[in-house]
């Protein structure tokens, strides 16, 4: 059977209840998958200082429409957390994460700095930032995450972009960028790999055509209240897809940091060269 390289990633990892604490049901579900899939590993896109709150969907829709009408004020801003979630202040969580990084079960990617933007798409942190603001935000987040591991991958919070972000990330040494929710093909420009999103765990069917490709990038969110959050239903979806793939391929789970060596060894098919 042909090898299929699979990366499984989740967003919004941080030391908040429901977002990645060791005792969270979502974390237990993911670690429990190793009973059936002993080699599964996870890329967690981590928020260095999570300052956002998840609001009810109806409230988000109302606020966004008010923003479009020009009503931008304190009442229509998205909700900010009242607690300090800087990861370096949560030593037990840091130990839990470091232990799993050392065991090569977790890989840490950067997911902005505070994942908060008061008047853009909820939590689209980089929308509207200047180049200087973008540089500082990325650098501050990377410096905080250094307590966990070297970080080479980045996913933009809520897919929020600006005209400077990609250049800033390249200048700061990132090698794996996840900036486009619609990207379905792994791309490489000679220095940086652009990571696709081919399957979301809220579906129990893999719709992506893998013809010509021997890789699959799977995505979800840790908070269970989000559409593709880690719930029993969505984890069952993931299991169903993985079981089907196991029948057709020799599945190998990878970190994003494995991509460069696999590519250089000629093991990845279907990579688009830019």
Structure, described:
The protein has 274 residues and is an alpha/beta fold. The protein has one domain: Alpha-Beta Barrel (TIM Barrel). The chain is built from seven helices and eleven strands. It has helices at 25-32, 57-68, 91-102, 131-145, 165-171, 232-248, 259-264, and strands at 3-13, 42-46, 106-110, 153-155, 176-178, 187-188, 193-194, 199-200, 215-221, 250-253, 272-273. The strands form two sheets. Strands 1, 2, 3, 8, 9 and 10 form a six-stranded parallel beta sheet that branches. Strands 4-5-7-6-11 form a five-stranded mixed beta sheet, with no helix packed on it. Strand 4 (153-155), helix 5 and strand 5 form a beta-alpha-beta unit. The longest helix has 17 residues, at 232-248.
Strand-helix topology:
Blueprint: E1 3-13, H1 25-32, E2 42-46, H2 57-68, H3 91-102, E3 106-110, H4 131-145, E4 153-155, H5 165-171, E5 176-178, E6 187-188, E7 193-194, E8 199-200, E9 215-221, H6 232-248, E10 250-253, H7 259-264, E11 272-273
Parallel strand pairs: 1-2, 1-9, 1-10, 2-3, 4-5, 5-7, 6-11, 8-9
Antiparallel strand pairs: 6-7
């Amino acid at each position: 059977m042909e090898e299929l390289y699979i990366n499984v990633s989740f967003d919004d990892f941080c030391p908040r209840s429901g977002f990645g604490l060791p005792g969270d049901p979502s974390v237990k579900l993911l670690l429990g998958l190793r009973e059936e899939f002993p080699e599964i590993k996870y890329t967690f896109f981590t928020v260095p200082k999570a300052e956002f709150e998840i609001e009810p969907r109806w409230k988000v829709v109302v606020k966004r429409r008010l923003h479009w009408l020009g009503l931008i004020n304190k009442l229509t801003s998205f909700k900010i957390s009242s607690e300090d979630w800087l990861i370096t202040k949560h030593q037990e969580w840091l130990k839990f994460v470091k232990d799993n990084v050392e065991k090569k079960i977790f890989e840490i990617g950067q997911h902005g700095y505070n994942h908060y933007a008061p008047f853009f798409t909820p939590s689209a942190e980089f929308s509207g930032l200047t180049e200087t603001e973008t540089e500082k935000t990325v650098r501050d987040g990377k410096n905080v995450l250094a307590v966990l591991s070297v970080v080479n991958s980045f996913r933009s919070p809520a897919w929020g972009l600006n005209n400077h972000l990609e250049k800033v990330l390249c200048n700061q040494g990132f090698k794996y960028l996840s900036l486009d929710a619609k990207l379905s093909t792994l791309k490489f420009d000679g220095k940086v790999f652009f990571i696709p999103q081919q399957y979301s765990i809220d579906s129990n069917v893999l719709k992506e055509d893998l013809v010509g490709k021997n890789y699959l990038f799977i995505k979800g969110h840790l908070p269970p209240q989000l559409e593709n959050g880690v719930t029993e239903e969505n984890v069952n979806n993931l299991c169903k897809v993985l079981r089907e793939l196991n029948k057709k391929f020799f599945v190998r789970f990878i970190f994003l940091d494995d991509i460069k060596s696999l590519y250089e060894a000629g093991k990845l098919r279907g990579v688009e060269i830019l």
